[in-house]
């Protein structure tokens, strides 16, 4: 289970009322139109559930979730009906609080991979726990929180409908010298003070798999970290993304055993870099011959 039941970790809406109160929908009780408490979806099934809460004398806020049996993402439609006299400051926030639950026994190792991030203007911005709270202005493609193997990603249907994003986080020591990291990521959405306003978002909650994330065509795959060598991620990522990963997947397509694939993959890489290795050995040998004369 990836969601913290008692620490947040859900799709919440936050706004300030006209009388100055800060409201987080995570603390409100919604009326649910689902007759059952538990559903199991098959591959081609979908399920629509709506949550409604009254606001003001005549207004209400409605969240409608569309779940799919064969996908890790859900569609979330928001409807603000006659809430123009309830919401102030011409904005509301979409917030994911406290990240997602750590899934590995080695919490220190998992903390090294955990962060929150945003994607905007073709670039990914990363926020680490312990950094100062950070704000971004402009259209946002998505915001995300992640641990080592899983991520929660929120993306607006239209990035231009979002004015910015913000991030915060902290670390917490646990028993046996372990550590936990908690992240809060939010989207700033303008509110136009009309009788009826609606916006749609996607929520991905699933594994960090490059091919799976790329299939959504929303640049989700940017969250995959290919590592770096002396900080040269600009060079390492294209090589890993467009050469090494396709080669590995091609081998795995015909050889289902990952152990065998890794061995063959290593041999191919060794053969590919052999000319460079050979030249390096020749250069080292010449230097050794020159060493006595120097």
What does this structure look like?
With about 290 residues, the protein is an alpha+beta fold. Helices cover about 20% and strands about 35% of the residues. It has five helices and 15 strands. The chain has a nine-stranded antiparallel sheet with strand order 3-4-5-6-15-12-11-8-9. Helix 3 crosses helix 4 (about 260-270). It is elongated. The protein starts with 11 loop residues before the first strand and ends with a helix.
Sheet with the most strands?
9 strands, antiparallel
Major β-sheet strand ordering: 3-4-5-6-15-12-11-8-9
Radius of gyration: 24 Å
Poorly predicted sequence stretches spanning 5 or more consecutive residues: none
SSE run: EEEEEEEHEEEEEEEEHHHH
- Separation, N- and C-terminal Cα atoms: 65 Å
How many extended strands? 15
Q: Give the percentage of residues in beta strands.
A: 35-45%
- Mean pLDDT, to the nearest integer, reads 87
Helix content: 10-25%
Shape: elongated
Structural class: alpha+beta
Helical element count? 5
Secondary-structure blueprint:
Blueprint: E1 12-16, E2 22-24, E3 31-32, E4 46-55, E5 59-68, E6 73-81, E7 91-96, H1 107-113, E8 115-120, E9 123-127, E10 134-137, E11 142-146, E12 150-156, E13 164-174, E14 178-190, E15 196-207, H2 210-214, H3 233-254, H4 258-272, H5 274-290
Antiparallel strand pairs: 1-2, 1-7, 3-4, 4-5, 5-6, 6-15, 7-14, 8-9, 8-11, 10-13, 11-12, 12-15, 13-14
Helix pairs in contact: 3-4
What's this model, at a glance?
This protein is of the alpha+beta class. 22% of the residues lie in helices and 37% in strands.
